[in-house]
Amino acid sequence: MDAQTPQTPQTPQTHRDEEAGLRVVVTGATGNVGTSVVRALAADPSVGSVLGLARRIPLLSVPKVAWAGIDLEEDDSERTLRALLDGADAVVHLAWRFQPTHDPVVTWRSNVEGSMRVFRAVRDAGVPALVHASSVGAYSPGPKTGPGVDEDWPTHGWPDAAYCREKAYLERVLDTFELRHPQIRVVRMRPGFLFKKEAAPEQRRIFAGKFFPGPLIRPGLLPYVPDLDGLRFQILHTDDAARAYLLAVREDVRGPFNLAAGPVVDPRLLGEKLGAKVVRVPAAVVRTALATAWRARAVPASPHLFDAVLRLPLMDCSRAHDVLGWRPEKTSEEALDAFLSGVRDGDGEQTAPLAGRRVG
Fold this sequence. Notes:
The protein has helices at 32-43, 77-85, 104-125, 162-180, 200-207, 238-250, 267-274, 283-295, 303-309, 318-324, 332-345; strands spanning 22-27, 47-54, 65-69, 90-93, 129-133, 185-191, 193-195, 224-227, 233-237, 255-259, 261-265, 277-280. Strands 3-2-1-4-5-6-10 form a seven-stranded parallel β-sheet, with helices on both faces. Strands 7-9-11 form a three-stranded mixed β-sheet. The chain has a two-stranded parallel ribbon with strand order 8-12. By secondary structure, the protein is an alpha/beta fold.
């Protein structure tokens, strides 16, 4: 299939040939996680075909991967979605909208109502496995030291942040979904922040704004890193997260899995990577500056998400190691290096969300 030519989706065969391998459908297949997941799936011999769903069909060409366009925000998308999922062995649900942060109703309709359409389509199409992209953002505030919380920690999020509120709500939706449909194997991935070089331009636009000059984020140009109470968080290279998603598709596992790499990122590590001095600053000062810039629409990242980051717990990933058989191949420092390199270079990917754009 020529990935450069939009194709009219055809209803797949309900009964696949066992020798052909697994048929997997991925929503949000053109974003940071999606592009890594479709490549990981396509490279695995047990997977016969991958159907990537996105609002805009990309120019990206990957062996064994076909593309179809669908907008999960639209009420009438559910019927099309059911047809696309017919005959699938697993659905990996990654689709997520981060903006506009000033209008949480828009993101709610896309992220929550769109996800519920996917869940119902999985049920109606008789798909045996659903792998859902949850997040560390679904967790209630917790400890910033020690081994971290396991998957039993409450998932009520930080209610003032739309991202956390939406992730937490979908955890409740899936609680009910699993009770009503025990025949469907449901896996919930709860990764930390995910970085790779190709996604850095998109992440710069999401959090700093499209006019922020990426080349400024280089050692020596940013003189200070603020040392804030609670600024300790976990990250992971996106390709490592993709391997976990592959294992969740392939193996007979259920339930939630924390995903993160070490070491924990803190102001000291950020200062080392940026060649900047770490300076103690009250969190209220930084929040006030961010809130002012956000209200002026100078930056897209909301102060509510800043509040959430300072409260997110550290995670214990033992269950992913022991049950899923997963361990990260790259450290958090390598993931951070990849992100910083991508921000500075402006390189992206041949998809609409990850298109590279240089500023400055």
